[in-house]
Write a structure and sequence with these properties.
globular; alpha+beta; seven-stranded antiparallel sheet; 289 residues; 15 strands; single chain; 9 helices
């Protein structure tokens, strides 16, 4: 193949490689390994650092739920019909304290039973700076990796997504709940003593946390006073000095030397690309050996 490595001959001829969130694995040395997966095709992107990579958008977008073509992607991968119809696309997914299943108004209660009415963790992480977040039990450390956190630790375990939202809102009085993705991609995080910050927040917010526990029960909201801090390293040869972001809708061909991967971003010498934001986009991937 003249020195060029393609994902498969089928992909090159048919252009049927559909982007999805990169799969991750945390090794014993705390280094993240990334794979791009589409059907039975897998590309170990962590092994492609320093190589020339081309991503060529075909112009087709497939809904991540129904697989049908859509002119525009909504909510990171859905067609408009399912973006408007599915409970997993409701605003309460971004604001769990407004959870519809807790209010008895969820449009898909069976789905919510498996997602929202499951144990969740509230955590502190060092991504662009200190932040608070939530995730389902079993999604750690994946959630931390997707946000590009270099340190993280759980600070509470709760029995539902709704309660995780109430606890998170309490901590948001003192700590941000958003990651500055540009700062995250600079890669210059200063180390944070997460245990010390947790204890400070527990003390500062004790009246509000005690009230939540009294109202909902200690069996449903458990503060975690002793937990390990997970350190996370990313496969990055060089962080960008200036952040320029690729958008396949405006620039269908992305090309450059792959210098790193962090969060769900590919870092090229020519700019960065958020893979998750392009869920459902059909591409041809070319990697020069």
């Amino acid at each position: 193949m003249n020195g060029d490595l393609f994902v498969s001959e089928e992909m090159v001829s048919r252009g049927e490689f559909v982007l999805d969130k990169m799969e991750t694995r945390l090794a014993q040395d705390n280094l993240v390994h990334y794979e791009l997966v589409s059907g039975d095709r897998r590309v170990a992107l962590s092994d492609c650092l320093g190589k020339s990579v081309e991503i060529n958008f075909s112009g087709r977008i497939l809904c991540c739920y129904c697989g049908q073509a859509t002119n525009k992607s909504f909510g990171q991968g859905y067609c408009y019909k399912h973006f408007m119809a599915l409970a997993q696309c409701d605003a309460c997914m971004m604001s769990p304290e407004k959870c519809h299943i807790a209010q008895g108004t969820c449009r898909e209660p069976e789905w919510a039973e498996n997602v929202c009415l499951q144990p969740h963790y509230v955590y502190l992480a060092n991504a662009s700076d200190l932040k608070v977040g939530i995730t389902r039990a079993g999604q750690l450390p994946t959630r931390w990796i997707d946000q590009g956190a270099v340190q993280a630790t759980p600070i509470a375990r709760v029995s539902s997504r709704y309660l995780s939202g109430l606890v998170e809102v309490t901590f948001k009085q003192k700590v941000a709940d958003k990651t500055n993705w540009r700062a995250m991609l600079k890669g210059d995080n200063a180390s944070i003593d997460l245990h010390a910050r947790r204890d400070e927040l527990f003390a500062e917010l004790k009246p509000q946390l005690d009230e939540l526990i009294l109202q909902h029960g200690r069996q449903h909201i458990q503060l975690i006073h002793h937990s390990e801090v997970q350190e996370i390293r990313y496969p990055v040869q060089r962080y960008p000095e200036k952040i320029s972001s690729f958008n396949l809708d405006k620039q269908p061909l992305v090309a450059g030397i792959l210098q790193g991967i962090k969060g769900q971003y590919l870092i090229f010498d020519t700019g960065v690309m958020n893979v998750r934001r392009h869920t459902g986009y059909q591409i041809e991937l070319r990697i020069q050996a």
